[in-house]
Fold this sequence. Notes:
With 318 residues, the chain is an alpha+beta fold.
Amino acid sequence: MLKQNRKSIEKGPMIIGSLLLTAGFLFYVSFRKGTWINFITGDALFINFYNKIPGADWVPSLLFVISFSLISTSLFSKSPRVHIWPLFFAVLSTSFELLQLLFGRTFGTADVNDVAASLAAGIIGFTVALSYKKKNSSSNCIKRGSFLKLALGGVALCSIMASVAPPYHDDIVDDENYSTTPAEPVYMSFEELREPVKTTAPEDILSMGKIYKYGNYVLINSVNEGIHIINNTDPKHPRNMAFINIPGNLDMAVKDNILYADSYVDLVVIDISNLNSIKEINRITDVFPYNEYQAVGDNVELNYVDQTKGVVIAYVIK
Length: 318
């Protein structure tokens, strides 16, 4: 009986299907950012090369549908309905694309190329399955098939969901303002970013971030812009004294009259012992991770980001 079961598995489709399935997962681990696979494995290893890969958007759909079609052909080659499996996987993948189209970012971003790739893969898998189709299926294969069908269907469902799921870090997304058109990043060069910080006249507080109390003063972060210095000697009448221009600033801390503030990827060290003569005394470069979406938000999809050009401070849609 065991010998008969082993013979019911076609090795060729199983090996090729397994290799393609592995390639699909490796693609996400290496190039795709923001899927549930990355939630487990961490950020993509080569995300900056993603937009340079021809067909990067639809390759995973093609790989997943073909791989599961071949694996199902291998496992159920003696079943008279073996040719149905490739069509099932193609419909499953296409259905998720339709859900994306109907419900927007809840299920991801719809892509007509994914639909075409899924259907093409289904046709390829259907053709291969027909070549292995046999009229008389063995009873042993049918018995074993119940469990294998459930397991295979479950793995396929999880894989396709992982490929189209919305980014795990985008918990709050404004669907109405979300742009599916890739936006071109606008850069601030590292040379400009690393010019010594400057203190300017008081500015209106438009976007309030972190608030830090320093003696009789209150330091208020203006998101990605810098730090407002507020004289709070008289709490009933606080006075806006000055503004420290620190591009990409989100956080701060003070110790022994020394202000430590982030500036995108850098840590800036500023002497504030004399608030009338604030000066940068040190800068530690590339301390923090490069975040291309820090200044643009999650409601836009950036095109290829070249980190050598500097930090992303805005975007334009062409």
